[in-house]
């Protein structure tokens, strides 16, 4: 119930309309435009009709500041007890007249920039904490000759971060601070596991070291997911990242000399691309969101089954969103790393495979509505294309680089600018969406034979045939 109150808060405000005074509780996160119809119905008879002659209605603060209809109340600083005025849209609201120039300067300064608040102090302190942990991890990773003690320190630090984050979340009821404290534990555990398995004569970050580090990262990510009640997508993303790294390292370890890191990167990135369309349905199933049931007979229709309670459904929907965001985050981290490995190889087939996977993620981003979820495949595709172009440039000669890579980047810059200007004002046509679906399917199907070529399966089959 606490999670529902935090997510779906209510602001108890007083709304002055031309016909009456309302004291209502309004959802803080719902856009003001969605609240206006209810306010017009309760604000007086024919109030909505009267707005046709005045250009509509707008909510203003007592100082005349108009509320943004596309944003909620909480993001605009509206809290309990606030007095709002429902006035015609075209009504002139004069600026306040000051009798002292100092007041004008102070008011202008407040409007030009935000003042430092305790929230900024909290965010700054937590940010310094995370930065210090990351810096400590990097220093211990780069310290030669002390892998054993450094590994123990890093694993102990990961345990302290996880326990501290769980304590902040469960004991002190500060789940957001607990999530920030426990979030770096997976990265620290990865570094500690790598150093723990690092021998004096072993290559740096070999498959054995990566397996140990990924296993440690998986352990602490799951512990953080269970111990912290906020920002679940961070820990789910860390868990998916650990599983992807563990799978890639296992492929190289099980078939040494046959499967190298390029082969493992091709397999892992292709499998994640093939599985990613199932992530939305998987998140719904894991969150156990109740699906609507259709009555089968009159008895079912008369049963008057109202379904689960509204707060329970909201909690499950939020959980499903966190799961989907975490799955997309982990997929993005593993895919970008795998595409960088493919592009660094410099061969033709790995470069083509990396480019196709990056393009497929870019096309797949359009199917996600939430901004932070759509951002994951967009960044995956853009970073994947960047490393692919960089790998292609290093593989080509200087003359070929100037002849092919430079014009390609110029065309990408022009095309992205044109798309930003056009599609920010209008939606793509259904025909364009249909073509995007077709290209998405074709790119996804093309990754399987290219992955087989990277693995050398075609040469192996030809060898069997003599």
Describe this structure in words.
It is a multi-pass membrane protein. The chain crosses the membrane at residues 119-142, 148-168, 180-198, 210-228, 235-258, 264-282, 323-341, 347-363, 375-396, 402-423, 435-461. This is Type VII secretion integral membrane protein EccD. Keywords: Cell membrane, Membrane, Transmembrane, Transmembrane helix. This protein is mainly alpha-helical. Helix content is 67%, strand content 5%. It has helices at residues 2-7, 32-42, 47-50, 101-112, 118-141, 147-170, 175-182, 185-196, 207-227, 232-254, 261-275, 279-287, 298-302, 310-345, 348-364, 371-395, 398-423, 430-455, 457-464; strands at 10-16, 21-27, 57-61, 83-88. Strands 2-1-4-3 form a 4-stranded mixed β-sheet, with helices on one face. β1 and β2 form a beta hairpin. α6 (147-170) packs antiparallel against α8, α8 (185-196) runs antiparallel to α9 and α11 (261-275) runs parallel beside α15. The longest helix has 36 residues, at 310-345. It is globular. The model is unreliable at 1-7 (pLDDT under 50).
């Amino acid at each position: 119930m606490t999670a529902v109150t935090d997510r779906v808060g209510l602001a108890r405000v007083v709304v002055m309309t031309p016909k009456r005074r309302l004291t209502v509780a309004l959802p803080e996160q719902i856009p003001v435009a969605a609240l206006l119809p209810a306010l017009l119905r309760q604000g007086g008879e024919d109030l909505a009709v009267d707005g046709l002659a005045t250009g509509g209605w707008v909510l203003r603060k007592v100082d005349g500041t108009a509320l943004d209809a596309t944003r909620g109340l909480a993001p605009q600083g509206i809290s309990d007890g606030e007095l709002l005025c429902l006035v015609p849209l075209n009504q002139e609201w004069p600026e306040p007249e000051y009798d002292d120039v100092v007041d004008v300067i102070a008011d202008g300064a407040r409007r030009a920039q935000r003042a430092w608040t305790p929230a900024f102090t909290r965010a700054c302190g937590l940010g310094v904490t995370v930065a210090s942990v990351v810096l400590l991890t990097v220093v211990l990773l780069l310290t030669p000759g002390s892998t054993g003690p450094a590994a123990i320190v890093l694993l102990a630090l990961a345990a302290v971060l996880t326990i501290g984050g769980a304590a902040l979340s469960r004991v002190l009821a500060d789940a957001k601070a607990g999530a920030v404290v426990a979030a770096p534990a997976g990265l620290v555990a990865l570094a500690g596991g790598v150093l723990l398995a690092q021998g004096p004569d072993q290559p740096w970050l070999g498959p054995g070291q990566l397996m140990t580090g990924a296993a440690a990262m998986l352990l602490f990510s799951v512990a953080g997911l269970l111990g912290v009640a906020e920002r679940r997508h961070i820990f789910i993303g860390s868990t998916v990242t650990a599983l992807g790294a563990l799978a890639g390292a296992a492929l190289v370890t099980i078939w040494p000399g046959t499967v190298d890191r390029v082969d493992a990167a091709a397999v892992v990135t292709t499998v994640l691309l093939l599985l990613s369309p199932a992530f939305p349905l998987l998140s719904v199933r894991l969150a156990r969101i109740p699906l609507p049931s259709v009555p089968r007979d009159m008895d079912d229709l008369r049963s008057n089954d109202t379904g689960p309670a509204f707060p329970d459904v909201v909690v499950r929907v939020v959980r499903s969103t966190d799961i989907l965001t975490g799955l997309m985050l982990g997929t993005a981290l593993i895919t970008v790393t795998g595409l960088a490995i493919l592009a660094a190889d410099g061969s033709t087939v790995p470069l083509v495979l990396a480019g196709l996977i990056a393009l497929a993620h870019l096309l797949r981003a359009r199917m996600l509505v939430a901004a932070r979820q759509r951002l994951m495949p967009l960044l995956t595709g853009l970073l994947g294309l960047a490393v692919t172009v960089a790998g292609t440039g290093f593989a080509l000669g200087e003359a070929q680089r100037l002849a092919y890579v430079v014009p390609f980047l110029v065309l990408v810059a022009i095309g992205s600018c044109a798309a930003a200007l056009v599609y920010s004002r209008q939606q793509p046509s259904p025909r364009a969406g249909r073509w995007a679906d077709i290209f998405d399917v074709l790119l996804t199907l093309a990754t399987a034979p290219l992955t087989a070529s990277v693995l050398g399966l075609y040469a192996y089959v030809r060898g069997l045939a003599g």
